[in-house]
Specification:
Structural class: alpha/beta
Distance between the termini: 63 Å
Shape: rod-shaped
Length: 614
């Protein structure tokens, strides 16, 4: 039940912020690591408007933004180098009212070059822009509409208005972020109130006859690192292009770089603030994102996420595995020595698997899988710890009544003492001890005096039973029952029981010396027998005790009854034969006892005989 509850709770967490955060955290690390291993494409080159270009162009074009004629010259210069496509990550939406000829020149150059692609942006509907009717721009923007799309649908778009509409080759450059403000995906198309508008990378790829995925966006598979986004060898500054015609060797070198390449014009200059937050960097150049999306679409190298149901299945299996394992391990300490190392190894394997898949363009989100398994192990460990503490406390409370508390703690620590041992059949040695003359003694004393006397006597005897590893079963009036061999096996059970019996008689003599003269008749009889018995927790829900039952117990009691007028200690032949040490055995004869058809041979030891009736 606990494992099922843990699995359900953890699985539900997969769809919460906790799950998304954990998955994003690990995935971002993997994406960043994989990016450093990827080689930049040979067919994409970035023309960079960097700080150097801005500074060099100040004497020619002034400060940014440059006149559109500069961009027109750039297109003309690039066209001579025969690129496959020229893509601008620059918006040309506002007319230059001071230099209209410059805008017109740029428009004419774009019209003359069919491989120039321009950028557009969708903005929020509450912007200051006047929304346009999408139907009127269906051809110009290559829009595709759904059957249920309203022909009156409007959208607020920033478009290259300085270029004649019939010469537009425009795609969106919107870059959406997720809940945490980090951008990880790029649009294949924007959904404009039901109309599909290709993103600029998708527009370029489609025009060059590359197939596009069916999804509305792709998860970016970046190239390079924070210091070298998309690889520095794929950057050429604008000033180089504009000055190339003045140097034949530089021109030839640039032609080798640019011919048949996709050229993306954008800015990495920090002053223009054209950067975005990505898993690679919080200031990743937007032009590098555009180049990454273009490369991903052309080479189909974008990340494909592992099916969500596969993730949920893996999640449930891992949680169930750790829960079941944690609960199945008998020794609580092994939870730390087995489960935690296992969690570490499995987590490492999951990370390595995820990394290997990421190198092959598959993204397996293992962050929450690792986190949930950690939570499961912690939760189950706490549950086991609490349960172990309660079990330990219960066992200590119960068995401390029967066994030396110090031994109980050792047995609990060794996991050798469990309530599950009830209904256990085993070989035990049972000891019965009874006070001789107790009836006469109790008749001449008050109840308080009798109880005080018994408590003093029993304290010494119980301590001796515990000393030799015995289990105190019960007090029956003035009688004591104990046994050896359970709950912990004892190979020397008969010998230990006999040694305890001998010391109990010594305790009697010592105790008797402290009594008044009229209590000197106070004596003891002890019977011992070794045999099979059923041992365990026996009783009802309201009251149960750890006890031994069976014929072995009955015979030990009968043997104790034979001690009167014979010996302080009598033991059966099976008990005698089980003793490994040599004692001064004294045969006491055979006796018929109740419940036995065969006579029972009993023995005593030197010093335990009684010469006169007590």
């Amino acid at each position: 039940m606990l494992s099922l509850m843990a699995t359900v709770i953890v699985a539900l967490g997969l769809f919460t912020d906790i799950g998304f955060t954990a998955n994003r955290f690990v995935s971002d690390i993997l994406v960043k690591q994989v990016a450093t291993k990827r080689m930049p494409p040979n067919n994409i080159l970035i023309i960079d408007i960097d700080e150097y270009s801005l500074k060099q162009m100040e004497s020619i074009a002034g400060k940014w933004p440059w006149p559109r004629s500069i961009h027109a010259h750039l297109i003309e210069g690039l066209s001579e180098l025969k690129p496959e496509a020229i893509v601008f990550d620059v918006l040309f939406s506002e007319h230059d009212i001071y230099r209209p000829d410059s805008d017109a020149y740029f428009s004419d150059v774009v019209a003359q070059n069919s491989n120039v692609y321009l950028a557009g942006v969708e903005v929020s509907s509450n912007s200051m822009l006047t929304p346009i009717k999408l139907k009127d721009y269906q051809q110009a923007l290559s829009l595709e509409k759904n059957n249920d799309t309203s022909t009156q649908a409007l959208s607020s778009l920033v478009l290259p208005w300085i270029v004649k509409r019939e010469h537009w080759r425009v795609g969106s450059i919107n870059f959406s972020t997720e809940r945490d403000g980090v951008g990880r995906h790029y649009d294949v198309y924007r959904n404009l109130n039901g109309w599909h508008w290709l993103s600029l990378p998708a527009k370029v790829a489609s025009s060059l006859n590359y197939s596009l995925p069916n999804s509305s966006s792709i998860k970016l598979n970046f190239i390079g690192n924070e210091l070298i986004p998309f690889a520095s060898k794929r950057y050429v500054d604008v000033f180089q292009i504009l000055e190339a015609s003045k140097d034949s060797s530089a021109y030839h070198h640039l032609k080798q770089q640019i011919e048949n390449k996709i050229i993306i014009v954008g800015s990495t200059a920090s002053g223009l603030y054209d950067s975005r937050v990505t898993p690679i960097s919080h200031h990743y150049p937007a032009v590098s994102i555009l180049a990454t999306a273009t490369e991903n679409l052309m080479n189909q190298s974008y990340f494909t996420s592992v099916n969500i149901w596969a993730e949920i299945l893996a999640l449930c299996l891992v949680v169930l595995l750790f829960t079941a394992s944690s609960l199945a391990i008998k020794n609580f300490r092994n939870v730390f020595f087995i489960i935690w190392p296992a969690w570490f190894v499995i987590s490492l394997l999951l990370l390595l698997t995820s990394y290997f898949l990421a190198l092959n363009d598959y993204l397996f989100s293992v962050g929450y899988l690792i986190l949930s398994s950690f939570i499961t192990v912690v939760t189950v460990s706490m549950f086991r710890g609490i349960r172990e503490y309660q079990q330990r406390k219960k066992l200590l409370t119960i068995f401390s009544r029967f066994i030396d508390p110090r031994l109980v703690r050792e047995l609990i620590d060794e996991q050798s003492l469990e309530l599950s041992t009830r209904s256990k059949s085993c070989r035990v040695t049972v000891l019965f001890s009874d006070i001789r003359g107790f009836t006469t003694l109790s008749e001449s004393r008050s109840a308080e005096q009798v109880v005080t006397l018994l408590n003093g006597y029993f304290s010494k005897q119980v301590a001796t039973i515990f000393k030799y590893g015995g289990t105190l079963d019960k007090f029956i009036g003035d009688a004591v029952m104990a046994f050896w061999g359970a709950p912990v096996e004892d190979e020397l059970q008969s010998e230990n029981a006999l040694k305890a019996a001998i010391e109990m008689t010594e305790n009697l003599i010592e105790f008797r010396q402290s009594l008044p003269d009229d209590l000197q008749d106070f004596d003891v009889g002890i019977g011992l027998h070794t045999g099979e018995a059923v041992v365990g927790m026996i009783g009802s829900e309201q009251r149960y005790d750890y006890t031994a039952i069976g014929d072995t117990v009955n015979l030990a009691s009968r043997v104790e009854g034979l001690t009167k007028n014979k010996a302080r200690i009598l033991l059966t032949e099976s008990c005698k034969n089980s003793c490994r040490s040599t004692f001064n055995w004294i045969p006491m004869g055979s006796f018929s006892v109740k419940g036995r058809s065969e006579p029972v041979n009993v023995y005593s030891i030197k010093g335990m005989l009684i010469q006169t009736e007590q």
